[in-house]
Write a structure and sequence with these properties.
Number of helices: 6
Strand order of the largest sheet: 2-1-3-5-4
Mean pLDDT: 91
Number of strands: 17
CATH class of the largest domain: Alpha Beta
Structural class: alpha+beta
Shape: globular
Bound molecules: zinc ion
Strand content: 15-25%
Helix content: 10-25%
Length: 400
């Protein structure tokens, strides 16, 4: 049995944004084993609102508080370790903890039967009631990001070995995942039916939470994929727990300015900036076997990420967008600049279904976490060795 008691801060009911202290005594042996090498994470200013939502004709699935606490605490550690590996400090999303060491999971009972909150019904009926619940008591809402978990439906299509029927995606600052009887960390990494099922739904839980914490899709660079496996925000929802799955440097940079990751004591208002940053200058040139993107912007931009993607460029066809990130440097005059280097060999996993056509999405993130993008397309095959891409006039939209 591994008990970790090195963190002195014990956690009071619903008041702690700290990482867990000792692994709770009542956790499963497998959870204790997986949490034995937990790192001490920075305390958070804001915390994720975790909701277990049931229709008025349903009860939560047995032992959900322990099972989901184990899964969330392990995931908090995974995100924290990946942030540290990416040079962003031992930071993860904040969770409120109860006195017994479990995550504070609010049980919200809907006013209607479970079928009124189905995948096909959309998330709005559920979210309206969740928001009313969170706003009913001052202090109950602990941040702008909300994670909703609903039990699987049980009907001719869905059951505990084929869970589903409920919203399962992330959008804006909200995300949705599901629960079923075998959703238990004891099955993690096992080559069994329940182990493979756990990777599918826990990997999905980890990936959708990434969306709910501001992350877009991305595939890693060829080198990162070779070294570290599969990007969580690419196809990592199919590998999490069974083969190496990592968070890209670009994703870590975005998370560093996500409200849920803000260190305690930082009172920044997040996501309030509606006006796009000003792009003073933007050039992209082919220099031998790489592209070099140079931008000069207003000082509100903290990082610039270039996503290279093959067509089509529509939602959910961007799992293969390869990110290249860059920190902004201050210029004399108050503006900031970035040079993003894009070695073409790193794009080797793009299929380029339309010859050499590529999309270049430039994402600019502001200090308070807002993301703005603009996209250009170009044909790599038509670009001379020292040619420049026509960047047009930047039209930035506020988005994911
Ligand atoms: Zn996704």
């Amino acid at each position: 049995m591994h008990i970790r008691a090195t963190i002195a801060t014990m956690c009071a009911l619903g008041l702690s944004g700290a990482a867990m202290g000792a692994v709770p005594e009542h956790f499963q042996p497998r959870a204790k084993e997986l949490l034995a090498d937990a790192i001490e994470l920075e305390e958070n200013e804001h915390r994720l609102n975790v909701i277990y939502f049931v229709g008025n004709d349903r009860e939560p699935i047995a032992d959900y508080e322990r099972r989901i606490s184990e899964l969330l605490l392990y995931l908090q550690q995974y995100y924290g370790k990946e942030m540290a590996r990416n040079g962003q400090g031992k930071r993860s999303f904040g969770l409120s903890l109860k006195e017994n060491g479990e995550v504070l999971i609010h049980l919200v009972r809907g006013s209607k039967p479970h079928t009124a909150y189905a995948y096909g019904t959309g998330h709005n009926p559920c979210l309206e009631e969740v928001n009313a619940y969170l706003d009913a008591v001052p202090g109950r809402r602990t941040g702008q990001h909300t994670f909703v978990i609903m039990p699987t439906h049980y009907d001719e299509q869905y059951n505990d070995l084929n869970p589903g029927g409920v919203p399962f995606y992330g959008l804006g600052t909200n995300c949705f995942a599901l629960d079923y009887v075998h959703f238990d960390i004891q099955h993690l990494g096992q080559n069994t039916q329940k182990g493979r099922l756990l990777t599918k739904w826990y990997g999905g839980f980890a990936h959708e939470l990434g969306h709910g914490l501001n992350l877009p899709h991305n595939l890693g660079t060829a080198s990162d994929n070779a070294a570290m496996g599969t990007a969580l925000m690419g196809a990592g929802n199919y590998t999490f727990g069974i083969s190496p799955t990592y968070i890209t440097e670009a994703s870590a940079r975005i998370l560093a300015h996500s409200e849920s990751f803000a260190p305690k004591g930082t009172k920044t208002q997040f996501y309030t900036q509606m006006t796009p940053p000003t792009v003073v200058e933007a050039r992209c040139k082919r220099v031998g076997d790489k592209l070099e993107l140079y931008v000069v912007t207003s000082p509100d931009v903290v990082s610039t990420i270039a996503y290279l993607q093959d067509p089509p460029y529509v939602v959910n066809r961007d799992y293969d967008a390869v990110p290249f990130a860059c920190t902004m440097s201050k210029l004399a005059g108050g503006q900031t600049s970035a040079i993003v280097s894009i070695p073409l060999a790193e794009l080797s996993e793009l299929k380029n279904s339309r010859g050499g056509e590529l999309g270049l999405d430039v994402l600019m993130q502001t200090y308070e976490g807002s993301r703005f993008r603009w996209r250009i397309t170009f044909d790599l095959n038509q670009l001379p060795a020292d040619g420049s891409i026509d960047m047009g006039t930047p039209v930035l939209w506020r988005g994911y």
